Amino acid sequence: MARQFFSPEAYGTKISTYQLLPFRFTRLNGREILVNECGEFLFAPVGTVESLVGRKLDTTSDLYASLRSRQFVTDHSSSAHLDLLATKYRTKHEFLLGSTKLHIFVVTLKCDHSCLYCQVSRQTAEHDEYDMSYRTAEKSVDLMMGSPSEEVTLELQGGESLLAFEKVKFIVGLAKEKAAGLGKNLQIVLTTNLANVNDEILDFLKKESILVSTSLDGPAYIHNANRPRPGNNSHEITVQNIDRCRAVLGQDRVSALMTTTRLSLQHPIEIIDEYVRLGFHSVFLRPISPYGFAIRTAKKIGYETDAFLEFYKKGLAHILELNRNGYFISEVYTKILLTKILTPHGTGYVDLQSPAGAGFNVLIYNYDGDVYVSDESRMLAEMGDTTFRIGNVHRHSRRELFKGEPFVSLMDAYCNQSLPGCSDCAFQSYCGSDPIFNYATQGDPVGHRATSAFCKRNMEVIKHIFGLLAEGDPVTLRILWGWLTNRDQKEMSEELPA
Amino acid sequence: MALPSEAREPLSVDAEKGEALLKIDSRVFSRDAVLRALYWLSRDLYSAVSLSDDQQHFVVRLRLKQPAPTLENPKPPDLQTLVAEFQTALVDSELRVQIQKETAGVRELILAKAFSEAGVLEDAPPETYEDPVLASHPRERTTSLLKILS
Question: How many structural domains does chain A have?
């Protein structure tokens, strides 16, 4: 006897109407990108949003099923969507839990380099009055430990931090003692140009399990031009001491950060190749910050956002090629954005958060006891503008820092959810708010998105990443997913076969 | 309300002067949508918006900020392109306004549920709002979202 299935309608009630859930959208390369409140996205044909809003979308189509499963719409057959969306939203904003985690101590303004872009008014090595006093160090550690977070990171920087090694030792000892008493997990990072490293310092770093972060701007002709010092041998010393640190501390205990200048812009490939040559597995193609000496020397090192974007795209293409050829290396900014785009999680990267990371997630304790919401706001103060100085360790409690007028007055500009231009931007959940950048470049913390370098840069970088995802090249996708799971593309090929 | 896939044609475009006059049907497009679309073009355009006497239209006057090439910017955007961009942006903006209007209540509820543990809500949101995983770790529950210790 012949048998036949009933028509599809017989197996379920036809969906006659649906309700929209919050989402945003934009157009890119002949498609629409829809992004929901929690950062989940969907590529869709142009016209999808108009059909969706006008209730003209075929509810039996695959597109509708995708929109429903990713919570862009809901109908009578959906279940528990609000609880689920709330949980996803909270997961994405986990970085808010516990408030300030990163605490940066400026132990001295002394430095033996005179970098073009240096963001502080460096002082020559004889001036001890620019070191953090023991009393200020104690008060700063107390404030740091008053943060509700159970995980705290202490970053010791300068100037050149190792020119005040005695202070470094004192702060590390005190912080460890207090953290142990309070049951907090403490991670310590030393930011240094490595020029003054010796055996005693290396033993100390090893004994105290301190991570080292140094500066490497590329091959010698770029690094030495960006980072002049007596003898013009900064590159040679840095490379030598990276090796020395690795031998004592371990390969993965030393990281390097590069700063982009006009000279660097012409050499993305050479810079990345230098990182590969020295055995690094990540590189951060960072834009220069518009603060400190960077502004004063703008004519020498200033450049347009367009030039940076070209540098970034060229660099990223080269990095992907290196991975294709078997060398695992990630680009840090792309990885941060991919984490936000492809995973349920946010990131701890303070420059791309909403509410802004400044203050909530990072505090700067200057050598003189002044407290700032970010390193950039300290640099503005060095240029004579103390707008973002929220208090002083000798005069203010943590509550007073956060409830005082300087911090509270910034709140209007802290959430991109309510900023003009950002409030309905498709990329809102991947991006952030940077009131200090807005203030430094446009004169007010809210800023103007249509002319903002921050907006243009992030918009273009995010679009570029979505372009790669839309192209869907299986090897590229494996590499990008591999960055999020720390596996090279060969390992990934078993999970994501072509 | 159904949307046209393109906004109305401009009333006049004077490419030489770098000025354009547009009439936008206020029954189709909201004030919010017009202003949002203009915001994104404010790098290149000055704009002025008014309501027609019969209140049926928004009258939008656009003027190029840089009508002629300069040494610093030898290729300024041309008016026709910007007007076309405005018309596309207007449709997208209206869609965004409608989505936001329709989903504002749900969005508020999602955020309220997500942040309810901060203890800032006067009334608990409906349905369950505790994260079952977090609830099983009593120590974690004492860490509020924005708690500030003195």
Answer: 2
CB A303 within 8 A of CB A285: no
**List of residues 6+ apart from B19 with CB closer than 8 A:** B13, B61, B62, B63, B64, B79
Q: Is B43 close to A421, i.e. CB distance below 8 A?
A: no
Q: Could you report the per-residue pLDDT of A10-28, keeping only the tens digit for each?
A: 665 566 789 999 999 999 9
Both A191 and A292 in one domain: the answer is yes
Taking the Cβ of residue B127 and every Cβ of chain A, the question of whether any pair is shorter than 8 Å is answered with yes
**Domain end point (choices A92, A108, A141):** A92
The residue of B90, B110, B144 whose CB has the most chain A CBs within 10 angstroms, and thus the best one to mutate to test that interface, is B110
Q: Which domain holds residue B53?
A: 12-114
**What is this model's ipTM?**
0.85
Q: Is A306 on the interface with B (CB under 8 A)?
A: no
Is the domain of A27 the same as that of A58?
yes
Domain contains A434: no
Q: With the C-alpha atoms ordered A239, A241, A242, A246, is the resulting torsion angle positive or negative?
A: positive
Domain termination site, one of A401, A420, A449: A401
Contact B5 A450 (CB under 8 A): no
What pairing do the DSSP bridges indicate for beta strands A362-365 and A102-106? parallel
* Count: domains in chain B: 1
| Interstrand relation of A185-191 and A41-45 (parallel, antiparallel or unpaired) | unpaired
Whether B121 contacts chain A with CB within 8 A: no
Tell me which chain B residues have a C-beta less than 8 angstroms from the C-beta of A50: 3, 5, 91, 95
List chain B residues with CB under 8 Å of A146.
149-150
Q: What is the mean pLDDT of residues A151-159?
A: 95
Contacts of B102 in chain A (CB under 8 A): 19-20, 53
CB pair distance less than 8 Å for A93 and B102: no
User: Where do the H-state alpha helices sit in A16-121?
Assistant: 48-53, 62-69, 81-92
Proportion of chain B in helix, strand, coil states, percent, rounded to 5: 40, 15, 45
Q: What is the pLDDT of residues A31-87, one digit of tens each?
A: 999 999 999 999 999 999 999 999 999 999 999 999 999 999 998 776 667 888 998
